Amino acid sequence: MRAKFGLVAALLLLGFVILLTCRRAHGFDTAPDAPATPVGPSSGACDSLYLFTTSAVDPDSDSVAYRFDWGDGEVSDWTRFVASGESAGAEHVWYYARACSVKAQAKDVHGALSDWSGAYAMELRSGPRFADSVVARIEVGMSPTGVAALPSGEYVYVACQDDGAVWVIQTSDNTVVARILVGWSPWSVAATPDGQYVYATNFYGGTVSVIRTSDNQVVDTIGVGVGVSEIAVLPNGKFAYACQQGEVDKVHVISTDSNAVVATVEPGSWPVGICATPNSEYVAVACCGGGRVVFVRTQDNAIVGDMSVGDSPWGVAADPQGDRVYFSIECDHNWGAAGIGSITVPDFKVADTMALLGYEDFPQAVAMSPGGRYMYVVFEDPMYSQVTVVEPRRNRIVGYVFDNGAYPGPYGITCLPDGRVYVANWEDETVTVLGFSGGTARNTHFRPYRGER
Question: How far apart are CA 12 and CA 396, in angstroms?
Fold first, then answer.
């Protein structure tokens, strides 16, 4: 009797499995139930990352995955598959202020889709913003490369290589107010912290021109040597550090009191990027030819840090908090992609992680936002009309700001105290001004980063 009962039970189980298999083979798989209304914060700020979770039951006890409709025109990727009834989630950033309704959908391992869940209302307020919109394009001289703002933010100075001049832009109305003849092939500009002088390097002229900003007159010329390129002034205003590349690879230390070269440093092959830490104790030099970032102690101009960072480091920028310096590289040794890395100060250690920028050509000049939350990156390739926005401390690309499909060849970049960004476009002889869309509606200049590279 027991044997007959066991046989009957086995046959019934086999029949159920066969029936279920046949149903699935012929498209009769039962779809998951609609997921529970997502759970997350009820309110938040634009430009911040938030996690939402949901769960759903599958009638066939199949594993399920979820995706989320964020209510701003974006839908997430599918999560990993989890057991029926188990929750999973995804993160999202909203880039403009409005009330969003977050919904979820489930699918089982056979691809059967559920209905969408009920909507979860999330109220968004304006949060910390980056410059995300093109607000002006200003015509300047031929081949603009270096660009620097006065500390007050009232004026921006632009070095135009093939024009032999530095152009001055009044930022209140973005008009050109002066053209200052300097030397042969001006490359880079840097302002003193009191805003009284701007130092301009003349690459082929081998000199540094000192411009008095009160009347925009050249008041001194300092002989350095052919190949003088990037320049930085210490935040304490005592010295300017100018890179020289080519047959001679040096950094020249210029006293701002006497406008004389008082020391030279040999950091390595092809020094192209330079910045000072906020306390003026160190200068970081990106040596493109050697794949290294070198730190010079300003007290005695001794090299105290020398780190291999990857192929072709170029742009460097100090975090306003003073505990790290960021650098751009063309190719990371571990990932094989361009990226933004960081070095801690004063222990001079390269961080293990970086914000990967993708397989692009030469991420070049970089600029920090006033608070240091964002970094703006431009590329040497003349076909790029975009500025990449990065959150360096989170190793995260925020997105891209586009210049209306033009191909200006962005080269130099600087930030104003109010957060606006000025980009020198050597290809089409303009300066692009990035401002703020207001965070209340979509803006055609900005594309959020969604994991593509």
Answer: 55
